[in-house]
Amino acid sequence: MPGAQKVSENLSAQIIHDEPFFRAVADEIEIFAAAYAGRLPVMLKGPTGCGKTRFVEHMAWRLKRPLVTVAAHEDLAAADLAGRFLLAPEGTVWHDGPLTAAVRMGAICYLDEIVEARQDTTVVIHPLTDARRSLPLDKKGELVEAHPDFQLTISYNPGYQSAVKDLKESTKQRFVAIEFSYPEPSIEAEIVMREAGVEAPIASGLVDVALRSRNLRGQGLAEGASTRMLIHAAKLLRGGAPLSAALRSAILLPITDEPDLREALGAAIAASLPNGLSLQ
Ligand SMILES: Nc1ncnc2c1ncn2[C@@H]1O[C@H](COP(=O)(O)OP(=O)(O)O)[C@@H](O)[C@H]1O
Ligand SMILES: [Mg+2]
User: Fold this and answer.
1) Most buried of the four, 179, 197, 265, 279, by CB within 10 Å?
2) Which ligand approaches the C-alpha of residue 232 most closely?
């Protein structure tokens, strides 16, 4: 990201100097600021590619806090967040994990797609998200009190979750939630224009394509085209790709491997295009 600087390569804490562009859709900035003022943990709920990560970057800049981002995955262990002893020439040496580093320095820690992590990993955040505001490092025998400026934010896409892969009730209930969804068409077009540097008619044409794809949600398609995908398509167009190729590469191919669905989506998209264009 331009204007961001890593505080430490290992811990990937960023100080964001330049304002990351974020187009607010509702009162999300005010709610997050109020939550931060009370140091409440925040959960950003919403589909992929709708601006959650950009929002956290914007808020970290606005609140002048360093940002530590961790992308959760199914092998993410508690020690990957908290830290571990590693072998060094002088013996074993403790290395803080990114969460511990954020807790000590007073950063905003953003755990992206937290539900991907194993449940035993998720419970590590419990003592940090209630009145204790502390992180026990059992292996090291240390109880780290959170820096007064520390705050925890997680993202969560309710669309993907199965019963097996869901946050525990006791985890969910610790968070203030802010809901994200794709913005209304005129705002989404503004975002696409701004992010990809295309003209208004192109941006609104792409938003129209997205709306059609989102109508197919639930009919086999897990998600419609995200704002991110529209920006990709717009950038391909800007780079000189023909319209049908840009839509095919940025939206149709990434979104599904299912031939029937691809055909249905291709037809739905083609219906919004100038006569005779096909995506197949
Ligand atoms: N409200 C918004 N304001 C500015 N840019 C946005 C907004 N929503 C989406 N974007 C754009 O879409 C891209 C994808 O958003 P991102 O924050 O990465 O999505 P998420 O984290 O929800 O998957 C961003 O890089 C940004 O270009
Ligand atoms: Mg994200």
Assistant:
1) 265
2) 1
